[in-house]
Design a protein that fits this description.
The protein is built from 15 helices and 13 strands. The chain is of the alpha/beta class and 416 residues long. β1 and β2 form a beta hairpin.
């Protein structure tokens, strides 16, 4: 018997063998690799450090000469970074101050009505759908439905009980000029407009819709959409304001596929808040898809309600929807359940063969022996029902096919 065997040496002692796993060649290689990396992380020599500092000084001096008016950079260490406070809310729990927002949805879902309500609420410092706002100047760039803006703003003020009141303390500046904000000219033109119209720096800038303000750009290309994103980011940081972009969703979304904004993914990636306007038939929900630094808010059911104006005119305004009905489903009965006055009002719209303004539709309905009061009541009910829609220019068109005898008198003839 050998000395190791008698002494219970490492080759035969079970306790020693079980004290730890045996190392493999792979383990040894990993250990050696870590050691080599440690050796490579040695500090620079004095000469190497001097060369590095000289390079930094040369490049920084060149940059200073090319950009003489830049402010000093903001730099935080582990102590000061913890003192940074989260941005306050512009609209409580919905839209942060000094942020980039994206509000998008399909055509005709109520995006612009929502944007106008946001703009007016922030300008006047009143609640947006029950959420408190931080008051400040608002610039609303709008390229869609400029002709109907007067009626929309008038209807919104009337709905809020502010028609005829002095609202000079709530600055809302609407700019219907179309600017190509991915170009230097368009960006400079906007700065000129802001200089000339604004007494104060804006709290909120709304751009509605993106496609009109980047006309000619390929929205699927980062090369084209990148300058727009850089520009609104500059506005956000230099003004300390929120920039809200109104955009369209993809048209061809297959069943089961989630909605998404059109174009390159860099825009939603840059956004702090993303809100989807999802619905139809003048009823929809505001759904929070992204809230970068806070919890997402719960879905907010909304509807477009009719507000009568002077001169036999009317418009729609954004209202909370407490009906509890499924989004997209009409709440009143439709088809044969309509009273005859509503049937005639809807039929004359179909027979017109084109969208009608409120005045045109009312005149045609009167010729069909519908009184003004019956027409106004029918219009309100048809909009809630979802049988008609109001487009960005304030013109009405049918949204649902008629049924029964109505179909025989109108749709059937048109199809034939």
């Amino acid at each position: 018997m050998s000395e190791n065997e008698v002494a219970g040496g490492p080759d035969t002692n079970p306790a020693c063998a079980a004290s730890g796993p045996a190392t493999t060649p792979e383990d040894n290689e990993r250990t050696a690799s870590r050691e080599r990396r440690r050796q490579n992380m040695k500090a620079l020599t004095a000469s190497e450090a001097a060369d590095a500092r000289s390079y930094i000084e040369t490049e920084a001096s060149r940059f200073d000469a090319e950009n003489p008016n830049l402010p000093p950079p903001r730099i935080y260490d582990l102590v000061t970074v913890r003192q940074i406070k989260r941005q306050p809310w512009l609209i409580e729990n919905i839209l942060p101050a000094c942020s980039l927002g994206l509000l998008y949805g399909k055509e005709g879902t109520g995006k612009s009505f929502t944007a106008l309500d946001i703009a007016g609420s922030v300008a006047l410092g009143i609640d947006f759908l029950g959420h408190p706002t931080r008051q400040g100047p608002v610039v609303y760039l709008t390229a869609e439905g400029a002709n109907g803006l007067g009626a929309r703003v008038g209807g919104w003020l009337r709905d809020k009980g502010l028609a005829g009141q002095n609202i000079d303390d709530g600055p809302l500046f609407i700019v219907p000029e179309v600017l190509q904000l991915h170009t230097k000219y368009g960006q400079g033109r906007l700065m000129q407009i802001l200089r000339d119209i604004l007494p104060d720096i804006p709290t909120l800038v709304i751009i509605d819709p993106l496609q009109s303000y980047t006309s000619g750009a390929d929205e699927n290309s980062i090369k084209d959409i990148g300058p727009y994103i850089s520009f609104i980011n500059d506005i956000r940081h230099k003004f300390g304001c929120t920039v809200l972009t109104i955009h369209h969703s993809k048209k061809n979304v297959t069943p089961g596929q989630s909605n998404s904004a059109r174009g390159h993914s860099s825009l939603p990636c840059a956004a702090d808040t993303i809100v989807l306007v999802d619905g139809k038939n003048n009823r929809f929900e505001l759904e929070c898809e992204k809230q970068k630094d806070a919890d997402k808010f719960d879905d907010i059911p909304c509807q477009l309600a009719v507000v009568p104006l002077d001169n036999d005119d009317s418009t729609c305004v954004l209202k909370p929807d407490s009906s509890g009905a499924s989004i997209g489903e009409p709440t009143p009965k439709s088809g044969r359940g309509r009273p005859k006055s509503r049937e005639r009002v809807l039929q004359v719209l179909w027979q017109a063969g084109r969208p009608l303004s409120h005045g045109e539709w009312l005149t045609t309905a009167k010729a069909a022996r519908v009184s003004k009061s019956s027409f106004s009541r029918a219009l309100r009910e048809l909009l809630v029902e979802g049988a008609v829609t109001c487009d960005a220019d304030g013109k009405y068109k049918p949204a649902l096919r008629l049924t029964g005898n109505e179909s025989e008198r109108s749709i059937g003839n048109e199809a034939g």
